[in-house]
Structures are given as structure tokens and as C-alpha cells.
Amino acid sequence: METARVFNIERFATEDGEGIRTVVFLKGCELRCKWCANPESQEFRREILFKKAPCTNCGRCIEICNQKAIDLREEFGFITNASLCNYCERCVDYCVNNARCVVGMDMSVDELIKEVLKDIEYYKMSGGGITFSGGEPLFYSRFIKECSKKLKEYNITTLVETCGYIDNKNMKEICDYSDYIFYDIKHMNSEKHKELTGKDNKLIIDNLIWLSNNYKGKLSVRYPYIPGCNDDTDSIKQFLDFIQTLDNIREVVFLPYHRLGMPKYEGLGRKYEMGDMKSLTTSDLQCISHMFKDYDFHFKIL
Ligand code: SF4
Ligand code: SF4
């Protein structure tokens, strides 16, 4: 049976699609967006995440680790060296302050279905369902397809949030089974895209064009609005002009930058590349709303 590496399951979510939803976060992505709010989603391998706030600096985790995989790093704390760790979880069990956790758990289709069906009454009552997010969930397209087929038996809808950097065959695999797709565009300029995410945007643009011609479900395009990266008028206009050329785009959503993921970078021993950049709110983006009048799709700022 298909499995997927899950790093979080969020119940009662209301901002990741219609109604009350369970969001299933799958681990692994080839992009490295500087502002990514889920740095623990990027690597495909399991990881040990350290949380600074509850840690009392007792040093017990270092003592207990037979692999000598934990270093005390001045700027971050008790960080695990992935090349030495064997995921025995001793440091997690022995940390009485719950300052360490394993990120990434392999689940079968049946295990996931059993988990998400716990909230079936909420989905029915609110018109909600299951959202697959990540990371890039479409690396597990066969898993998503199998789950979606089973969920259809209960009349539960599924939604996929994708960055689009994925082989087109993976996208084709889920198209007939997913009711909604949320599709991210980070920048229309390919060089700039590479600078911001580590990859150029050709595959992403090609996949969106393909979807707009072939996908029968509801397709929403999302633009993370990141100060100093893609918030200038030219970049936004280029994006909107491109979307205007496509069919079947249900809505365009702007997502204001936030820095909620910052502590997790520290907990993985990684530098947060956005520095001290402040989080934005919906009202910070009202300055671009005058641009929407030239286009006829539905807009939203979250
Ligand atoms: S992570 Fe836990 S075990 Fe390690 S030093 Fe902090 S409190 Fe102690
Ligand atoms: S999971 Fe095991 S090997 Fe890895 S850091 Fe913790 S104690 Fe060491």
C-alpha cells in the first residue's frame, strides 16, 4: 500500500479551503523559498526539531545520545547533526521539557483515512474536507489519489496546495480525483524566481498552463506577497497579465508575508534569511487593490 511522509496534521483548519478541513502536511520539496513558513517541510528525510523556549539547558539530550549527534550551538541551542542521527528518539523521550520532537512520520493510506475520518461530522456540517499541503504534496501523488478515492466514498472533498515544481505526470495523476487545487506563483521572472527559490519557474508556469486547459475542478492561484522580493508593481502586473491569459482560474489570492516559521529555522540549526522583516497584515496589501479593477477574476487578500 502507498505511504507518505507526514509532518503535521492540523484539524479544524478554516483558511485552507472551504468549510472546516483537516490539513495533511507532507514532507519534502525541491524549492527553497527564502520566506518558507515550514522549513521542516523541505527535506524529505525525517528531522529532529529543537524548541528553544521550553529548554532548560540541562544537557541531558547530549549525554543520552549514543551517536554523539547533538551539538550545543551558541546561536541556536541543542541541534541535531542529521548525518549522525539514527532517529532512535532517545533524546526526545528523555527530554522532560518536551523541547525536542521528530518531524516526519510514514503513514499508509488506511492509517491516514482512519485519522481524518475522526472529523467527518464537521466536514459534512460545514462543506469542508481534506487539504493536502506540504512541502510539495504532489511528490506523493499516488498516495493522494488513493486517499481521495477512498474519501469520495464518504462524499468528502479533497484539495491540493502545490508549488507546481513537480513532474507533470504527478499532476495528471490527481487531476480527476481532487476537487480543488491551490497553485502558488512566486515570481514571473525566471531568474528572479531562481534567486528567491533556488529553481527557475519554467516547470511551474508550464504546469499551470496545462492545468488551466485540463483540470475540471476549482483552480485558485496564490501569490505570496513578499517585501523586497516580489511586491513591486511591475512584478504583480506581470503576474496578473499572465493569469488573464488563462482559462478556468476561479480566483487570485494574495498571501501577506509572515514570519511565524522563524523559530523553526533556529530549531533546525538554520539561518532565517528574511532577517528582521516584519509580518504584514491584510490591510498592508490594500495598496495593490487598485490594480485589480483591470482584471475580471475574483480577488482575495488573506
Ligand atoms: S533539549 Fe531537553 S534534554 Fe536537551 S538540554 Fe534542552 S531541556 Fe535538556
Ligand atoms: S534521535 Fe537518537 S541519534 Fe538522533 S539525536 Fe536523538 S538520541 Fe541522538
TrEMBL record:
One of its GO terms (molecular function) is metal ion binding. Belongs to the organic radical-activating enzymes family. It catalyses: glycyl-[protein] + reduced [flavodoxin] + S-adenosyl-L-methionine = glycin-2-yl radical-[protein] + semiquinone [flavodoxin] + 5'-deoxyadenosine + L-methionine + H(+). Keywords: 4Fe-4S, Iron, Iron-sulfur, Metal-binding, Oxidoreductase, S-adenosyl-L-methionine. Residues 46-75 form the 4Fe-4S ferredoxin-type domain. It holds the Pfam family Fer4_12. PROSITE patterns: 4FE4S_FER_2, RADICAL_ACTIVATING, RADICAL_SAM. This is Glycyl-radical enzyme activating protein. InterPro entries: 4Fe4S_Fe-S-bd, Aldolase_TIM, BssD/PflA/YjjW, Organic_radical-activating, Organic_radical_activase, Radical_activat_CS, rSAM, rSAM_sf. Its cofactor is [4Fe-4S] cluster. The keyword Iron applies. Residues 15-298 form the Radical SAM core domain. Gene3D superfamilies: 3.30.70.20, Aldolase class I (3.20.20.70).
